[in-house]
Amino acid sequence: MKQLLTVLFLIAATTSGTFAQSSRTHQYNLEKSGLAIEGYDPVAYFAAGKAIEGRKELSLQVDGVTYQFSTPQNRDLFKANPTKYEPQYGGWCAYAMGAKGEKVEVDPGTFKVLDGKLYLFYNKYFNNTLKSWNKDEVNLKARADNNWTKINK
Fold first, then answer.
1. What is the per-residue pLDDT across 92-105, written as a single tens digit (0 to 9) for each?
2. How far apart are CA 41 and CA 98, in angstroms?
3. Rounded Cα gap, residues 95 and 130, in angstroms
4. 91 near 28, Cβ under 8 Å?
5. CA–CA separation, 31 vs 39, rounded Å?
6. pLDDT tens digits, one per residue of 49-93
């Protein structure tokens, strides 16, 4: 009986860890490979003020989400504090999250750093949602925060 309980406990522990990781990756805007921000360096948005593509050999995985970095220093900064650099709303379009509570793809080159947080936006087919976000940022951000909380329940 004791062995059975031990086996059941191990299965439950393994399954719950897998669920937590897959739940996180399920919510994030990832390529099929699990790559975040289409391979762009999340720290570069803060350090360089622009979108810079990361390098495959400078990858780091955090809770099932893989990030790439342009420099070893950026990778080390991210490793020390991932939540500081991860994009808001799982890397989905901040405007779409606020306006409709929807997960919409982004253009990694269209972004805004606001209050120390990274926000990404859709920008294709003459539709730059960063411009719309800037017109009503306070309300859209509040709604996006609320919508993201609901999605992650």
1. 999 999 999 999 99
2. 24
3. 7
4. yes
5. 9
6. 999 999 999 999 998 899 999 999 999 999 999 999 999 999 999
